[in-house]
Amino acid sequence: MIELIVTIATIAIVAKFLPSFILLSKFAYPNAKFSAIPYPYIKERELSRLLELKNLEEFKNNVVSRDFIIEGEDANEVQKSIDKALAKIITMAKSDSPRKVRKFYDVYLEKLDVDSIKKAVRNIIEEKELEEYVAFSEEGKKLLQDLKGVEKEEAEKILQQYGYEINFEMPIEEIEKEIDRKMMEKLFEVKLPNSCKKARDKFVKILIDVMNIKTILRGKYYGLKNIERSLIYNGWEISEWQMKELLKIDSIAEIISMLEGTSYMPFLRQAIVDFEKEGVVALERALDKYIIKAAREIANENPLGLGPGIRFIVEKEYEARNLKAIAKAIAEGMQKEAWKVLVVE
Q1: CA dist., res. 321 & res. 316, Å (int)
Q2: Contact 78/60 with Cβ under 8 angstroms?
Q3: pLDDT (average), residues 127-151
Q4: How far from the centroid of its chain's Cα atoms is residue 165's Cα?
Q5: Contact, 151 vs 159, CB < 8 A?
Q6: Are 116 and 144 in contact (CB under 8 A)?
Q7: DSSP 237
């Protein structure tokens, strides 16, 4: 009888934990691969080397990477090739990862389409012809294609069909907030194994915090009104009431001091000197550096799950941003100015 009870208990334990062990084993290969792939283009030394180049041909020849294949005859074409490479990188990460987390990478590609969607909406409101926008995801490609050549009323309906609670009577700040909110919501709603949800939730909530801090700092710096229309709630460290307190203050220095005790404060404090010379872009750059650090912390906290994948795609996204900025700077002969927007670990 005792042997039977022990056998049943053993079977129950195995049945409960075996799926988790199997899932963890499926992360072993991709996570090892992500850790082995270098990320040179967020390192100051490598970026300095590229900024010494004289023209785009030299730039293309000097970006030595199996991830970023640089093509094109002008800055615009080069930037598009970098975006195309980034999409391939994230798609590769998706393909290598367990099936149960692949949807996360799909939605992350959609997140990269946000800027193009916002530009398209602005052009529709201003009754301008839509450009050829970059789209990273299949969903984004389809939406941007559906918006081409339609009237305002039809564009509203299309956006609503894609889940955006938008009408063009809303201020543009609220429209853009809704686009951001919907994308954060989609990241939150991706169905993931329980072992991966904590890493995902922390990451998305940090993105919301950083987005809100940037919005407040930029709004105060330029004296904008109705900043609250652009804020999204449910972040990682900054509560709704704290954001409302920040909105009451006009001084950038005081806003930063009120973030004392948060993870963002040390990065903003280090950027104060640069802020005095460069303006709010220095603070935004500091917050981008924090996102890289946060992604690495998430990878360390969740090394056998989604954490290393999050770190990998964040590093590659910032590499792509840096390469695009350098390509533009070289084409325009403004290499010194490029440091204002480059994100260095």
Answers
A1: 9
A2: yes
A3: 89
A4: 22
A5: no
A6: yes
A7: S
